[in-house]
Amino acid sequence: MTRVLVIERDDSSRRQLREEFERNGFGVVEASSAEALSLGSLQADTVVANAAFAGAPSNAIAMAAPIPVVVVADSPSIPEAVECMRAGAADYLAKPFQANDLVAAVERAVAMGSVPTDSSAFSPIIGQCEEMRALLDQVASVAPTESSILILGESGTGKELIARAVHSASRRHHAQVMTFNCAAVPETLVEVELFGSDSGHSATEENATATRRGLLEAAHGGTLFLDEIGDLPAAAQARLFHYLSEGTVRRLGSAETHRVDVRIIAATHRDLRQLTDNGRFRKDLFTRLSMVCLRVPPLRERGDDVIAIAQTTLERVAGKFNKRGLTLTTDAIDAMRRYRWPGNVRELENALERAVILCQATTIDADILPIDTESRRFPQPDAQRETSSSLEGYFLRFVLDNEDHLTETELAKELGISRKSLWERRQRLNIPRRRTRKRGPRR
């Protein structure tokens, strides 16, 4: 059972806190002064202390270390809050507050006391090159904070893996991390998915839905990973900025706001600064998200990490297809080192899966790897337009010829597919999305 040391001078307030914690399954140790920290904290997993106890709050925080402390303030002030947070307080709550806010703060504080300090959070990540070591050092530094994070990198570099590493090494690792791909959902549904809707509200009458929580509410206490944030529609950008500023969300069709506690991690392969300059991404949202930026290097910059990732992936994929024991020949390894990997880790995994399926021997040679080591890159769009007569070639030609003056929704409609399918084919064929707004024909 999690035990909380409550330090509160007022008997009535102390009793209320004890009853609330016990109602939520916590064990409680009570004290009326900070002197209890010299012994009481040894019996508790976290401390909830009133900022009015004798001496500066920072002194009590230091006395309790390494036990995390949640400070509650009868007369809150910004200087005091700053002092407490600099001293290492897990949280600072101003009275009056909702009981569930205090319980959530204590749960986070308890989790903070057990945040992994080794590399266990990074175990799924393979990388020994200088760039990756520097990136993982950054992750370890920013993970325990509550800052929003923007992860930049080309498609297929593993941005979601980095986001999950941040979550796993954070104070929220006990809670869930939820993901949302901003480019894979029709624009009319993005706001409902993220912020929820009130009974009967929908972007279209035929899609009217019952009251539902959005992902921000569902992720309360945890982390929400927003992939391809550069494709977030303008209206949703405004709502997201409001949440980051105020900490509240309002469902579509509702007049009520809900306070939620979610850490936002966003990612994109696009140049958000350029989108901001072009007026296609909110400058205030970009500023808020980019306070902490992490860049994931492309595979071509990672040296021998390519082979380490390939060996691990081959073992996993070979087991999946019951072909354990497969190895890469020297020629295959050399070819993989020379190749530029425009699709990065995702392309590497797909290439190895195809090779495992086709392999009839105990080794994988370069000739069955679907990579072009001579050009070291994919053919340019013009060459593809001239040589391809397949369905994928038709898709490629249509998208390249029309994306300047059709929106993604209109492109999908003309092709007879969903917007999600359009996005998935773009990823598979390595056709980056250049525009998000409808534009007239070039003059």
Helix residue percentage? 40-55%
The proportion of strand residues reads: 5-15%
**Structural class of the secondary structure composition?**
alpha/beta
Q: What would you call the shape? A: globular
What is the number of beta strands? 14
Major beta sheet summary: 5 strands, parallel
**What ranges have pLDDT less than 50 throughout 5 or more consecutive residues?**
114-119, 203-208, 375-390, 435-443
Which strand order does the major sheet show? 2-1-3-4-5
The radius of gyration computed from the alpha-carbon positions, rounded to a whole number of angstroms, is 26 Å
Mean pLDDT, all residues = 80
Distance between the termini: 70 Å
What is the overall number of helices? 18
Give me the secondary-structure topology.
Layout: E1 3-7, H1 11-23, E2 27-31, E3 46-50, H2 57-64, E4 69-73, H3 78-87, E5 91-94, H4 99-112, H5 130-142, E6 149-152, H6 159-168, E7 177-181, H7 187-195, H8 215-218, E8 223-227, H9 234-246, E9 248-250, E10 257-259, E11 263-268, H10 272-277, H11 283-289, E12 293-295, H12 305-320, E13 327-328, H13 330-338, H14 344-358, E14 363-364, H15 381-387, H16 391-402, H17 408-415, H18 419-429
Helix pairs in contact: 2-3, 12-14, 15-16
